[in-house]
Amino acid sequence: MRIEQRLWTAAGWNQEGNGSRHDVSAAQLVLVFGAPSVLSRPGLLAEIQQRHCSALLFGCSTAGEIRGTHVVDDAMVVTAVQFAGTRLASARVVLSDCEDNSYLAGERLAAALPLELPAGAQAEPLRHVFVLSDGLHVNGSDLVRGLTACLPAAVTVTGGLAGDGARFGSTLVVHAGHAESGTVAALGFYGAGLRIGFGSLGGWDPFGPERLITRSHGNVLYEFDGQSALGLYKQYLGAHADQLPASGLLFPLSLRTKAGEAPVVRTILAVDEATQSLTFAGDIPEGAYARLMKANFDRLIDGATDAARTSQGAVGGAAAELAILISCVGRKLLLKQRVEEEVEGVREVLGPGAALAGFYSYGEISPFKPGARCELHNQTMTITTFSEV
User: Fold this and answer.
1) The domain containing residue 130 runs over which residues?
2) 7-140-205 Cα angle (round to 5)
3) What is the DSSP string of 231-258?
4) N or C terminus: fewer CB in 10 A for the chain?
5) Taking CA 252 as the corner, what is the angle to CA 247 and CA 253, rounded to the nearest 5 degrees?
6) Do 255 and 264 touch, CB atoms closer than 8 A?
7) pTM value?
8) What is the pLDDT of residues 170-218, one digit of tens each?
9) Whether residues 329 and 375 fall in one domain
């Protein structure tokens, strides 16, 4: 695997320490993670495509970009990857064409990816799907369910929801060199020599009583314990309530549907004063139990490190060559000047040989660990590692 990384800022291309390891003129994939304003800049994606004529441009808008152990804003991180034996296929769906039904979007996305690619006398089966979605107009839980329901059980899935800083205005997905809102795209990986690992962990502490969700619909929450959900959040947020939905990132929900299961975390995308409701990135089922959560700085950083260990362990003895890091925007807002500590922790685990690229998101898609069910997460660091043997 040959990898080159470049950084674009308002000053232009940063040529210092560009991460180039080999000639990647025949790169098959270019990962593009950038601020919405950067991805929308006329001619910029076309310039990247011209540099890598045969590559698929794939990526999304962000709430912050990750390059190595650095976190930047209002920039674009471009990672060109030339695989030795791995082959790729991609697919895209428009949410409005799916009647804004996220489950249907997941089904159609899975159906659009071939389950195998011809390779001489043999066929190479689909090994892994990396999915990127609009971050504001999707129910991530339904998207994951629809996608995984139509894929073979052996195919693993990771990915995330695009971001727009703390603005929650518009998000973009990059597929085949074009950046669009309201879309979901998937990248399929094929090849017996590819090793893929993944892990997803948080590090938040629950506080306050566990509350029963008494009224909800899909990913919209109306009532806890028969009381207004928005009213309860405002009570806990106090002076931060005027900054909703952004301030809600500081107080996500820990959600469980039955005793003994690992809870998932949900974060707010929107509020509706008229209905006194909160819209989350994924499902909030009636009858589930939820607790508010708050930050523990050291545990957030430890969570990122443990996610790296889980992802590295999944590839066995193969050292990670490429790691895609997707961390929640809420973590970035809380860690502030310490935010680079979580990517530095990942570097310590994966070692200097792995190229690190990624972004801060509105949601993360992954199993907690190998063998677990793929789910939408919020407020986690989710890592996908790749190596070829």
Assistant:
1) 2-201+299-388
2) 85
3) HHHHHHHGGGGGGTTGGGGGS-EEEESS
4) C
5) 145
6) yes
7) 0.88
8) 999 999 999 999 999 999 999 989 999 999 988 888 888 899 999 999 9
9) yes
